[in-house]
Amino acid sequence: MELHGARALVTGGAGGIGAACVEQLRTAGARVAVLDLAAAPAAEASFTVDVADESAVVAAVADVAQRFGGLDVAILSAGVGGSAPLLDLTTQEWDRVVGVNLRGAFVCLRECARAMTPTAPRSGGAIVAVTSISGFLSDRLMAHYAASKAGLAQLVRSAARELGAVGIRVNAVAPGTTDTPMFEATDRLPGYRDRVARRAALGRLGTAAEVAQAAVALCTLEWVTGQVVAADGGVSLHSPIDPQESLE
What we know:
By secondary structure, the protein is of the alpha/beta class. The chain has a single domain, classed as NAD(P)-binding Rossmann-like Domain (Rossmann fold, 3-Layer(aba) Sandwich), CATH 3.40.50.720. Helices cover 38% and strands 17% of the residues. The mean pLDDT is 94.
């Protein structure tokens, strides 16, 4: 897909990975609208929207499609984190995280796909969701977050299978330890930042721009759909039973 002139929407585009996606899409010549709780001055159009609010998402996506004359690209980056022991995890906290990361992503995906289907002769499009390597790892204190991201990865696969018939490709990028405002919450954990950086195959934290490169690239790949690409510097390759560690 050629991004120059493409009509794009980014959720969570006011900061972190989403903001980096906005910058890279605009550099490539795309027109970009953002849905976020905060304003996104770098975008052509910015809508103050909580993706957990279905009616607000429906209205905002329709507005974007009307302004741009359709929609070609959507990057679903809006998400929230959370941490709690399973036995202390409340249903309210579960609903907060799953409501944004999975339910909200579903509503955004559905509405963006609807906006893409009637735009012949430019029918079809590309949707990329930002999930997480936590969706296929088993970290303690993050059951609700991990479940939401695992569910999102499966939603991407199911949507790719179904929406391929109308020319819409659906993929996901799964970041690992990325230096974003959300990751700053881990600074309260002594030594955590340095430890996870050492465990990445590339030996450091990733940046929002690096994850955005993967997300934007997936928008352009015409023969790729239903894939979850780990953009994590190899941190998910770390094994607790690696024999090399005993020799170092």
